[in-house]
């Protein structure tokens, strides 16, 4: 008995957007604490994938790009100030800041929403 599917009932299932690359970027940022060049790879991926998904996912890529550039500026300032001693404390603060932003980003991806406080330089 050969049955052909009827066209009466057609299910339209929306395919959820793929958040894999955004998660990879957050992972590369965190891996930067062990292997120093991975955040650079992460920001390149974020630039490549920006604009290719729904708005909330694009906001994650924008958040990741901002996180990279802000951390670079903070890192340079902390390095320069390390010669007078305060830079080491700033580097610890930068590491905590980066970890918090990545964890918030992971959480936002799991909840399928844009990150909060996208425009801020703080957490």
UniProtKB/TrEMBL annotation:
Keywords: Membrane, Transmembrane, Transmembrane helix. Pfam families: MamF_MmsF. The chain crosses the membrane at residues 26-49, 69-100. InterPro entries: MamF_MmsF. Coiled coil: none annotated. It is found in: Membrane. It is a multi-pass membrane protein. This is DUF4870 domain-containing protein. It comes from Pistricoccus aurantiacus.
């Amino acid at each position: 008995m050969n049955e052909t599917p009827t066209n009466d009932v057609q299910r339209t299932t929306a395919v959820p957007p793929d958040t894999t690359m955004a998660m990879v970027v957050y992972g590369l940022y965190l891996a930067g604490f062990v292997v120093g060049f991975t955040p650079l790879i992460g920001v390149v991926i974020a630039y490549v994938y920006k604009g290719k998904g729904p708005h909330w996912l694009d906001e994650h890529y924008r958040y990741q790009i901002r996180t990279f550039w802000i951390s670079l500026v903070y890192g340079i300032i902390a390095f320069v100030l390390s010669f007078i001693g305060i830079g080491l404390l700033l580097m610890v603060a930068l590491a905590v800041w980066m970890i918090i932003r990545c964890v918030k980003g992971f959480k936002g991806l799991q909840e399928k929403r844009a990150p909060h406080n996208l425009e801020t330089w703080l957490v």
